[in-house]
Amino acid sequence: MRADFTDGFTALAHLALDGAQVSARVIDLLSGTALFSVDDHVVLPTAGIGKTLLLLEVAARLDEQSNSRFDLLDRLPEDLVSGAGVWQYLHAPSLPLTDLAALVAATGDNLAFNVLLRAVGLEAVRARGEALGLKRTALLDRMRDRRGPDDAPNLSVGSAAELTTLFARIARGEAVSRSVSSRVGDWLALNADLSMVASSFALDPLSHVRSDHGLSLLNKTGSARGVRSEAGVLRGPRAAVAYTVTVEFDDSVHMRRLSVLQAMRTIGIGILEYVH
What we know:
With about 280 residues, the protein is an alpha+beta fold. The protein has one domain (about 5-275): 3-Layer(aba) Sandwich (Beta-lactamase). The protein contains eight helices and ten strands. Helix 2 (about 50-65) packs across helix 5 and helix 2 (about 50-65) crosses helix 7. The model has no long low-confidence stretch (mean pLDDT about 95). It comes from Amnibacterium endophyticum.
């Protein structure tokens, strides 16, 4: 099967010439063969993609029965943050642990993320990442409306090479354990953000848990000012791939952001043609 990512490579090259930092990798899920890569070992900010590491730790604790899916977690004033998510607009002061994980996966819910992270602890998430062999990928901090000089400059960082391998391991049932991978994969399949690479797949953003036209997707996205990042796995009738695309760019001009999203969409077209 021929993989043609020429247009995607050209699109990323244009972004780089415009001053952006780009990193991408696409692999065949079955063989592990690299289909496309651009500076995939470069470490860049990945915004909300780092929340995946928290989901892995939560799922591992459920598997170890350290926590129950029915554990109720309260939101505290220190957890409050704006941005992505819906819990900040709801009246419920507490939610079960697995509901919070679903909110984090489905909407990138910042409040739910902060509550979960406070309950689990950042050190535990970092240890889990190290146990998974991650050296260039890490969750650095909680969500904050403003980052001061004493705070981590980014929520998370990662390399396309490591993130693509991590998502492939989740899809294959190899991240921590088969049951942990399955639970995290089910959460990631809820993601409603199909605005980047996945915008090419023509799936319903709010309902794509089941296969649609032979396609099934699990993914996590990250958005911050000057950062767009997506990692995921797309299965199709002919093949399956794991992928990561991250772009760090000057976000002072709206057209530049549009160019970034268009480039990510172009890579998505190459992925779709390969699996479908």
